[in-house]
Amino acid sequence: MKIRRTAATVTVASMTLLFSCGSSKTTSTASTSANPATTAAGTAGTAAGTATTTSAATAATSAGTAAAAGGDIPSAIKAAGGTSKIAGAPAAGIEAQYGPICKGADLGIGKIDFTKDTIGWAQSEKEANPFRIASTKSQVDEAKKRNIKLLTTNAQSDAQQENTDIKGMIDKGAKAIIFSPINSTGLGDAIAYAKSKHVAMIPVDRNITGVKGCADVGPQLGSDFVLQGRRAADAMIKATGGTAKLAILLGASGVNVTDDRTAGFKAELKDKNASGIQIVFEQTADFTREKGKSVTETLLQAHPDVTAIYAENDEMGLGALAALDDKGMSGIAKVHIVSIDGTKGAVQAIVDGNFDAVIESNPAYGPTAFAALDAYVNGDGAPAVTITTDNQYDKSNAQQALDSGTAY
């Protein structure tokens, strides 16, 4: 599997924050004059800027963010511990970064010798879809590149198991844990244990919320799931001309990714006054292709006149396509489909005329996570929250994404 560009972690050596008391406005200025070693760590894994990445960044900006006007910090970022947006243009592959600057030494975490010390990688969900496969591959490949001893676990979508996995790797001597949280909450036991043992914790993919930034976990790296939902809504409005009978295939219940992608999508429809798009059906399909198919079969029985489907990940979207194909309803001329992830199968469906658009959720955090960890424990620190740039695919660039390996 070819995993393409990854975002670079920008390390900030010093930052001055100016707060306007009694106001919601926050201004920040930053200096990026990190020492050479830290800068090198921060730029590890920077990917080549491609046309699709540039267009994705433009699309993300035009789509709007979850932040309110006036420079407020998005609520999801606040919940993850971000208090101020770091000023200046972010590095390639970075959408935005938020302070404070996390330093491992503040939690009593010592320096890590990557040539000797053990690092843990905790995957949250079974590797039954391309996103999880690419996610783990990125971590393993980067560890091999750096000659790091890496322990790996997979919690199989069980929060209790992920707590156990993380604590078990710490007991085996891991000096740091890079982990994909099963959810933004639910790992308090493992986080507290790591803190008591002075072990660095680096969340990727899903941010940890309800903790004080830099006080409980280290730098966090992830996508903006609310923004992904908004971009999907914009793509749906464009595909349908603003008129459709729409079904939503929801992700797993109780997972913040599902909540955020749903909230962002609906908020964008409202903000864009897309009242001609009527939501006639919503049901969870648990992020799986099998349930995507079975739920769509139920949908077609209840609403045979459905004209559009928003699938909150590609696997559910491809399951929906299979159900539509069985009924002779596949193809965007009959039913529009927009999904989120960026897998090869979904991007190929655009080329084949079965999907209108796919919003990427980048899984390749390996280089970025190890660079952030290095800066966090060995350098001048890393931002509390880094939001990576996600691509977006439609008929104009889908074949290019397949040919270049950008789609995973």
Kindly describe this structure:
Strands 3-4-15-9-8-7-5-6 form an eight-stranded mixed sheet, sandwiched between helices. Strands 11-10-12-13-14-16 form a six-stranded mixed sheet, sandwiched between helices. The protein has a two-stranded antiparallel ribbon with strand order 1-2. It is elongated and about 60 Å long. It has two domains: 1-223 and 363-391, Rossmann fold (3-Layer(aba) Sandwich); 225-360, Rossmann fold. Helix 5 runs parallel beside helix 6 and helix 11 (344-351) packs across helix 13. It has 13 helices and 16 strands. Strand 12, helix 10 (314-326) and strand 13 (336-341) form a beta-alpha-beta unit. It has 408 residues and is α/β, with parallel strands linked by helices. The longest helix has 16 residues, at 130-145.
CATH class of the largest domain: Alpha Beta
Distance between the termini: 7 Å
Major sheet details: 8 strands, mixed
Share of residues in strands: 15-25%
Predict the CATH topology of the largest domain.
Answer: Rossmann fold
Q: Please provide the count of β strands.
A: 16
Order of neighbouring strands in the sheet with most strands: 3-4-15-9-8-7-5-6
